[in-house]
């Protein structure tokens, strides 16, 4: 199935809202360093949560509402590894059980007194939270690649995208817009090279491999490969919210940008970007250049996503007319919509990998 046909398929009809709510998925809610001795308020898919460090310093996540009198638990404090409400002092452990009610002489534990709890994991310097409360996770969070690989350096940034999860993912993995919105940084509007694109679709991912593209003429391309060469370029979407961009130019230049996206609400997405790279020039020279350029690119994308979101709200609906050049967007939407329809703890149905090929001018 071509991207054009996929855009017309029942999973992504024109005019339908692309917003999804994903059960049983891991999302980053903060960097490890952000979660200290105080409760931290966060929102996931429109649901207010509170993070805190419980017994042994392990992260915990609860619904940010005390079951007693509807006060945000994030206004409380951590006492002996338990979260204490700031109104009447009820205390909750990492599992959401009520462990103390000041002044009550009887048993404190009762199901109605529990706060909804969410599974958490701390890895790669981030705190991940499972999107379905009160269940045992059926999977583990994504692992960022190359963090400990010899010869590689890493830059981390968090940016806010004023758009839906789908719009933010598609924007990150969309090639044609780079010649216009980011003109001169990657590519230019002049199309002089025909390349082949191989699109591979699986049950929980879709990947595009761009074959035969010379080193992009823009500023970023010249830094990545001063000597020129042919690019090995992959764009990948991994369920539920990972956008991965990989460039190899020659034997010495390798860039991997892995962005874990967290849907704060229907039209607000946090992007936790981890950029890992190996280059033939000293990394200490590159980092001061790479960070401001990356943030400039993110700011351009943020502005265009805000315009897109504002237009959708102004018209009250979305409209998508896709061509073969919209390589990954329709496939991402189909995967997200399929996952949003899954019953709790029901994995995506396995299906054989599909491969299509197309031509693109860059």
TrEMBL record:
Molecular functions per Gene Ontology: 2 iron, 2 sulfur cluster binding; dioxygenase activity; metal ion binding
Keywords recorded for this protein, A-Z: 2Fe-2S, Dioxygenase, Iron, Iron-sulfur, Metal-binding, Oxidoreductase
Residues in Rieske domain copies: 26-129
Pfam family, one: VanA_C
Superkingdom as given in the UniProt entry: Bacteria
UniProt xrefs under InterPro entries: Cholesterol_7-desaturase (IPR050584), Rieske_2Fe-2S (IPR017941), Rieske_2Fe-2S_sf (IPR036922), VanA_C_cat (IPR044043)
Descriptive protein name: Phenylpropionate dioxygenase, large terminal subunit
């Amino acid at each position: 199935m071509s991207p054009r046909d996929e855009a017309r398929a029942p999973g992504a009809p024109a005019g339908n809202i692309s917003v999804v709510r994903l059960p049983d998925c891991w999302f980053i809610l903060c960097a490890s360093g952000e979660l200290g001795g105080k409760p931290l308020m966060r929102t996931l898919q429109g649901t207010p949560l509170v993070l805190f460090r419980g017994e042994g310093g392990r992260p915990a996540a609860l619904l940010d509402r005390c079951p007693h009198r509807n006060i945000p638990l994030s206004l409380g404090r951590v006492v002996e590894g338990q979260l204490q409400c700031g109104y009447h002092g009820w205390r909750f452990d990492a599992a959401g059980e009520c462990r103390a009610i000041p002044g009550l002489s009887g048993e404190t534990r009762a199901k109605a007194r529990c706060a909804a709890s969410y599974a958490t994991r701390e890895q790669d310097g981030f705190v991940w939270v499972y999107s379905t409360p009160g269940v045992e996770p059926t999977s583990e969070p994504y692992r960022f690649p190359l963090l400990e690989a010899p010869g590689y350096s890493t830059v981390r940034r968090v940016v806010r995208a004023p758009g839906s999860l789908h719009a933010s993912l598609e924007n990150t993995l969309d090639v044609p817009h780079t010649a216009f919105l980011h003109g001169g940084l990657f590519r230019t509007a002049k199309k002089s090279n025909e390349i082949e694109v191989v699109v591979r679709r699986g049950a929980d991912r879709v990947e595009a491999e761009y074959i035969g593209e010379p080193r992009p003429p823009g500023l970023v391309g010249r830094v990545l490969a001063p000597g020129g060469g042919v690019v090995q370029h992959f764009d990948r979407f991994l369920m539920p919210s990972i956008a991965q961009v990989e460039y190899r130019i020659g034997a010495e230049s390798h860039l991997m940008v892995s962005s874990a996206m967290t849907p704060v609400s229907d039209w607000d997405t946090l992007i936790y970007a981890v950029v890992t790279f190996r280059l033939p020039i000293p990394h200490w020279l590159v980092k001061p250049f790479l960070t401001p350029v990356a943030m400039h690119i993110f700011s351009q994308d943020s502005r265009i996503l805000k315009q897109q979101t504002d237009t959708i709200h102004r018209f009250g609906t979305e409209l998508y007319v896709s061509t073969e050049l919209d390589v990954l967007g329709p496939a991402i939407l189909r995967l997200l919509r399929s996952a949003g329809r899954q019953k709790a703890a029901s994995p995506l149905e396995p299906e054989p990998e599909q491969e299509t090929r197309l031509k693109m001018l860059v």
